[in-house]
Here is the input.
Amino acid sequence: MAAKHWLIGCGLGCGAIVLIFLVISAVGTFFLRDTMSGFDSAVETRETLDERFGAVREFTPPLDGAIPADRMEAFLAVREANSPARETVAQAFESISTTAQEARELESKPLLDKVRSIFGIVGSAADFGGDIAGFFDARNRAMLEHDIGMGEYTYIYVLAYYSWLERSPGDAPGNARVNTRSGNISIGRGRGAPQELGDIGNSRISSDVLSMLQNQLDALPEETDDSWREELAAEIEMLERDSDRLPWQDGVPAPILASLEPFRERLEAAYNPSTNAFELLRNKRRGLWSIQAE
Here is the structure.
């Protein structure tokens, strides 16, 4: 209804309104079909990851906490392989037009310019969907190639970037904002309320990592040093009490720190705040034309 009122406000006749809607609908459907095809591939590769490595929350971290060097190499190989797709998504966000001034400029344009702009918006939206689909698919394929599951990848990402390097889970594109409690990502430029872009799954990620640490604790052999068992149990208890807490936010244990430190420079270079909100999302199909990321 809002779109209809906007078009009427542009001074278009009813026939022109219907024609433009039909053309945009046809073009949008064409673009959407290609976009959904990209998401289909991403869903298939995610399902293959789950079959090979199990559910994300089933991952059990190394029992002593230290991440083996070969697993860090696998993680970074995925980061490097997905770098082009990551840059594409970051650039796509920079092109999103959301300011009130830009909307007013569109309103003041002649009819043909309005129509061109509308087609541009439809095409940009479809392109962006395809960029996201390509990002997920490239990430999943790289994981399969380098033999690392989504659970292990999530564990290393959270510990390396959030717990150790102190990157914010709320990092998002441009001046977008991520609510780390609700998991909502909002984007807006200039003045006015931002527009919701959806759930980025922060609560799910926190729950998954908590399950991983519990798996780690449960798998400790009886002869494990009591101090490490107690330290891990205490961290789990604090995470259970505070859903906003990051794992080991009071200080990463020495074995984990020692295993991460040699890779600091490469980890820093492979991080992009513009794509942080999408890095650990999992995509699932919900109906013929719907893809859910969580």
